[in-house]
């Protein structure tokens, strides 16, 4: 296990994720340490050590009032904003339960872009306290501003209304004075909570001059440690303690106070209140920082789009998207370049967008591709200057990987070549590039990846040989046709069918099973089309390999793009209206007669991030498939068995699945970070960095413990499996990535594909210097 002192920020790290959490200011850390070492008394103790501790408590409460403009009301120290939210909501709902009201259909209102802590807490305590209200989201407009008309129409039926001072994802701030007017004009007595977490230190707050009932704050969002916060409660607002016990905090919040955390707030509040101290920058200075960062981003991302209006947003937040790039692409690049930002969507093959941007009505590509860059109100000019330089340097790696185009005429010599697997929402798009002939082929494209493909083609001036689908469902859009229209000038004209195949431009090859198949060339290879009806009536496979004397033998096939006929862990489903199980039975036999048991199969979906498979593996996993290929079941038996399998695909198991997936995966073998150097010294290994090329280029590390690092991105993992098939038993492979997630997936896949000695590094480069 690593020592805690071994876990440190990387040298020259650029931290731009302050909306998530901030580093602790030296003054705050010093105050906390001083209190732990020398002012360790319990504020409830009556002796002199306790009296000194109580002074820290009381003086910090006084400073808090000054900072938020609260001359009256209660200031209660908490563990953080979540506890404050719980306390406010319980207080309001308990009051509603105890006070008779004549609302026939009560509601609990919250802003649609609120932090999830608010609606989830409303739902939880609404149910636990048996309030019986409907929890309703207040819509926002395209700028994220709350709908005042909706509030006016619904607040009269509200037991509580929850809004926020500023949004954590976009920095959009609300007009609190305008909100107060519309709320109080329509319901003077409704209890109102305002989440002020992102506002503290960035916007002016004057609590005593508002009718806000509850306002939670968090220390770690403003340079304090985690585990400390406070809340404001208006003098007349009902209050129910969330934590009962010894009666600390004047009976409002029991539990011995976190005095070191409170002392750190004391130091921060003093800095905020000191007009002669420049630790916290003025609004104008913060606006200039944002403008400088925005200028740097525009220079490297000409197609950048901001997801919020700067005029109604905190100057410390920039939320943006770049068409053609996923949030994962950008965040991973920045992380490799030591620039810490947040993605607006999950970094996985299952794409999810930002609920905040969805509520604002942003297009899905903006929501799914959102990046949040946030600095703090204590950031310095030097830090912003360095961040801009780091951003510019990092994005050069994206240009060299043809992920973005320069707005200049620079000639980029891309190293992109061979087979790539692009995954969007568990759907696989396969891109094959022959760099020598400058030809490219796309199989099973999804619309969301069109911009990425277009950029690649434009970057290298490739000729697009074909854009193919393995099958198209009845209600599915014809993506190959849509892409051909976009790339009309970059590919030859032709008479393309529904799947993107041009019969007029094909030659023929003879397959292992004796069939004559139409084919097209790409470089010195061919792609042959093999009809495989069953999953759909138009299903086909594409066989990529090297022909000889007009034949494409099974041993000469590198990859088979099999669509949903066969999948990783299952046979494609055949219960659609356009399916035919008997035809699928015959298609499986036809495919098996055309390839080897070890030929790499490239499906149209990858539900468990396993990348590729083979007939040998699938027969081992599926008794039915094994029987079909061995000839131990007839068509009628297959149809009956297949119907039973398809019945197991229930709504709860995800109805979008195009087949039954075997869920058993062997765990990978770990080499923990503290043991990695010794392992590399003692063993002859190949270190596989499975990050994408732009990340690898941004993180210039070529050796670990004198072992050369080879870049094998996950998008190229299937090609690696093919190219190193002869070294499965001889080599030791150690997979590493940014955090350990991708290296784990790569190690599991290599192990599944027969590589004997495969390891991965949990925590990845985050824990390995």
Can you describe this structure?
About 1% of the residues have low confidence. The radius of gyration is 30 Å and the shape is elongated. Helix content is 33%, strand content 19%. The relative contact order is 0.07. The two termini are 15 Å apart. With 769 residues, the protein is α/β, with parallel strands linked by helices. The strands form 8 sheets. A 7-stranded mixed sheet has the order 22-18-19-20-21-23-26, covered by helices on one side.
Instruction: Please identify the structural class as seen in this structure.
Output: alpha/beta
Number of strands: 32
Based on the coordinates given, report the CATH architecture of the largest domain.
Answer: 4-Layer Sandwich
Number of helices: 23
Shape assignment: elongated
User: How many strands, what sense, and barrel or not for the largest sheet?
Assistant: 7 strands, mixed
As a percent range, the share of helical residues equals 25-40%
Low-pLDDT runs of 5+ residues are 651-656
CATH class of the largest domain: Alpha Beta
Radius of gyration, CA atoms, in whole angstroms: 30 Å
Strand arrangement, major sheet: 22-18-19-20-21-23-26
Tell me the CATH topology of the largest domain: Metallo-beta-lactamase, Chain A
State the end-to-end distance: 15 Å
CATH superfamily of the largest domain: Ribonuclease Z/Hydroxyacylglutathione hydrolase-like
**What fraction of residues sit in β-strands?**
15-25%
The average pLDDT value, as a whole number, equals 91
The tally of domains stands at 4
Feature tags:
alpha/beta, Aspartate Aminotransferase, domain 2, about 775 residues, Aspartate Aminotransferase, domain 1, about 35% helix, Metallo-beta-lactamase, Chain A, 6-stranded mixed beta sheet
